[in-house]
Amino acid sequence: MDFLAPSKPEAIKSTKAPWKILIVDDDPDVHEVTKIAVAGCIFDGRSFDLLHALSAQEAQEILKSSDDIAVALVDVVMESDTAGLGLVSWIRSELGNHFTRLILRTGQPGYAPQTDVIMKFDIDGYAEKAELSRTKLLTAIITALRGYKLVMSLETNRRKLKQLNGHFAEIVQKNALSEFATAVLRQLTDLLDHPVDLLLCGQDTLSEKKNDRSNIRVLAATGGLQEKTDLPIEVLGEDAVRRAVNSCIETREPVSGPNGLAMPLITRNGMTGALYLAMSNVELEEIVGTELMQLFVSNVALGYEKTGLLEHIRNLAFVDRVTGLSTFSGFIETFQRHASNQIPLLVVHCDIQRFRVVVDGIGDERAGGVLKRTGHRLSQIFPDALTIARKEKDEFLVLLKGGEANDIQSIVTRVEDAFQEPITLDDNQINLRMRLGFASSEDSAHGAEELVRFASIALNDVRQKGMTNHSVFHPLMQEAAFERLRLASMLTGSANQTEFHLHYQPIMRSGDDSIASFEALMRFKTPAGNFLNTARMIEAAEASGLITEIGAWMFKSAFSEFRKLSVAGNDVRLNVNLSPRQVQTNRIYKDIEDAASAAELQLHRLVFEVTEGLFLSNDQVTLSLLTWLRNKGAKVVIDDFGTGYSSFSYLRKLPVDGIKIDRSFISNMDQDADALAVVKSIIAVAKAMNLEVTAEGVETTGQRKIMQELQCDYLQGFLYSKPQSCDDLMKFVQQSSVSGSTFQS
Prior knowledge:
This protein is an alpha/beta fold.
């Protein structure tokens, strides 16, 4: 009948730490009986581990060394009548242990009134030993364990909440997404109390498109997932992780699996993200608790929203939206960071020659594509650049380490070579040429803005002179720029405004010394009556942008006054000069037509003088204007021929009617054989090309005679008349009309 015998219960193995229960009693039999009573008991998957003390003093030592005792069964009477009560007071007051659940037992009924003890002491039970049968003892212990579990859960939550508060304070202080994400995972690891593989996915910045998930990547990772940092989630090797994160982001709901849990970061501004933990929901609940984890994730979402917004604002401030390069603010920040390392820095300020022509040809929107490709090419030219920024419009800044590592001439060569290849935009091949200004911090301790200003002054020097494609800042350039500013300010005053005047100088036919034309020349007079240097004032007007207004005034005044000078004959023309800056403005057409209409002057009576530098880029804006003038009957001549990039090869292709030989050749040709040879060559080639030739600066009869022998068409100079006001020049005109010639040999 052995089969009727009760089988031995199968031992349940637990992987959790056992409950620690302290037995405090001076009777060894009580310890043994208690041990037998709880043998084999399991509560909440955890067995019982009994600790034994035969006195209150022994109990104190055990309690000092073990802070995780769940329940203590304490005898009231031991080495003294109140030893147990004293131990309870010591545990709660001196040891500061408010978590261990205390059950008082007494073998002397009525020794201490039960009600008074329960009211006075922080205990969970008070019973006579004789009453504590095995069932009642286990009931008391299990009830106490539940109480211990509850208070420990509350304490854990309190501690975790305190942690969360500190964590959130640290997290919200992060202003960069990478720092924020790293801090989140560090704090979560701390909250979980042991290392776990973690992943935080999100967007680099706030997307302009609603529900855009194209830029979601791994912002930070730990453990076995750490190598996934910076990868887009679509290329994560772990299928389970990728599916969980994608599903979490798509549904905005937690996604739980046997080996991982993904929780969404829900923000108000539409930023998308998810937090992934390589643990099950059950494990997480046991370690932290659902509510606490939800609070943590909510805090993370708030920090993610705030940090992402700051990153978005930073991008707006430091990332150029057209080119993707740094902005000027970002350039300054990078400069200051490297300047603090006490290394020499080189600033290169460059722009695109005639970029306005590109914009007019393809439009502003597509021109943005040209700027983007230009920035990309600069990045290819300068892979060692500390930063490359777009300053404004078509201007770029490159920050390089100074010294021998970056020789200026080699930089110029690199840029020239790189831009030999056209920029391709859709079906268009656009040839660009860059102008460069350099400034170095090697010899000075200037700040970022000042060094950029120096590089800009050097670049402006290139624009003003047009003689080369680059320039290196020199202090004299700053002085010249300040002088231009001073002179420009004299053009824009009110009560002390500089007065504009026009003088005229006759241009004579070399064959009979009759008047062929009058050249209108700007003059600038101070309120005190002193004339200012014309060349410097024109330069200042061009630099400040005032040349357009001054040019419009000159057209209107010169065309009007020319009616007085027309007494010299209906075949006499008026020469006016065009500034390169004027030519580039659209309003010049209207300024000329309005002035001619007001003066009732036909354009065939006008000759427009331009400098050689105007044709260097052979841009369509210039050619279109000059073609329009010639179609209206006006003539176009090249002024100061021979002083710039003179080339007869381009003369054949340009809409011009003649040239004016610069005075420097004329004044020296009767003493300098080389100068005379140049003049002869210019006239011979011009004649062969059917171009009219004017000689400037004729001051002697000898010079006049040479030019007549060389069959130069027109002569101009002090030999005939200096520039004079319209009224003063009338005497010259009257003399010419009476004698038929203004020159008496």
